[in-house]
Each structure stands twice: as C-alpha cells, then as structure tokens.
Amino acid sequence: MKLRRTAHAVTLAAVVAALSACAGGSDDAATSDAVSWDAAEPCTLADDATLAPLLTAGAGEGTATDSPERRACTWGKPEALNTVTITTTSAPEPVDPLRTIDVGGLEGRALAESKYQCILEITTDAGTLSIETKFGLDATANPDTSCDRSVPLAEHALTQLKWA
Question: For the chain, which ranges sit under pLDDT 50?
Fold first, then answer.
C-alpha cells in the first residue's frame, strides 16, 4: 500500500513538474519568437489591406531605409504628402505623448497628431515600433483624421513582429 502511494506521489510530482515546465516554456517561447527590432524587415510589416485606408494614391512598393539606430520602410507618394513610414528601433523617442491609444492591448503613444500627420509609437521588450502617417490631400477631404486611423496598421505590424 505504501509503495502504491509513493508511486502515485512520484507520478503526481512528475505531472506537476511537466506542467510547470510547459507553462514556463510557453512564456520563454513567446519571448524568443519575437523579432528583435534590428532583425525586423519593416517593408514586410504592412500589406495593401492595412495601407489602403491611409494612402489615397495607392501604396506602391515600400522603400527601405536602414541605419545603425533604426530600420524603416516608406510607402506612398511623398510629392502628394501622403506617405506611411514604419520604423523599428531600440528605444522610444524621449518625447511626452499628446495622448495614449490602446493598440492591441499595448499602450500606443501619439507623439504628433493633426489632420495632416500622425506619429504613433509602441514600445515592447523587443523594441519600439513607430508609424508615421502623412495624410496629404485626404486631410482636406477628411478633417477628422487622427492617429486612430493608424491603429489597425500598428496592430498588424505588432502581430507580424510577434510583439503583441
């Protein structure tokens, strides 16, 4: 009888240890799956569906611009002042936000916001994502333009990076 209880206790301890390892392992796996800001490919973080509501002249191909401190990609027509730029970097801008916005459960910081432009920034352990939108002629037709319009693109990019 004592041997049977000992066997059950050992089995129970093994199951608890295995479940604990699985629970801890999934957190580690989620963290390790996140793309580091400097390994991100910003031109892959948006698609036609997420860019279409922000660009009146069409997205076109993204143009990458990288430096040691940041990686970026820009879509749109600069001559029409209608562009979207996605940037990944190691740290947030040292600027107080105008307001905060919920972006997929994370805090988004509106660093600039008007009917002409939005700069939305989200910081995670893996890096900082910044989305700058210049609304161009759409700002005249749609004066209620704000950073809220950039949230779906930010959520999509965070999902691609596995930061959300």
Answer: 1-30
